Amino acid sequence: METTRLSTKGQVVVPKSIRIAHNWAAGMEFTVLESEGGILLKPAALFPRTTLDEVAGSAGYHGKAKSIEEMKAGIARKARERHDRGRY
User: How confident is the model over 1-24, as a mean pLDDT?
Assistant: First the structure.
């Protein structure tokens, strides 16, 4: 069991072994939940939860819908162009 101490600024240091085990880095945000025996730190969600209806059409494309084959061909074409310019 690891121990830590509350600073005069109200800060708590999470022991290094725990940060490494969970891949937690400096600047990471957490949700603090009160529980019966103390508190629980949970990594904060990077983005708010959304539904498909809320985000559908957000890319702003207004042309004719493309097939999967057309999309794959377009991606391959751009990858070749970038490769030819020395980007990859």
Answer: 92
Return the CATH number at 3.
2.10.260.10
Total tally of structural domains belonging to the chain: 1
Taking the chain, what is the end-to-end CA distance rounded to the nearest angstrom?
47
Q: Is there a contact between 79 and 71 (Cβ–Cβ < 8 Å)?
A: no
Could you list the beta-strand ranges (E) of 1-88.
30-35, 38-43
Choose among 42, 40, 10: nearest CA to 29: 42
Residue 37 lies in a domain: yes
Q: What is the pTM of this model?
A: 0.49
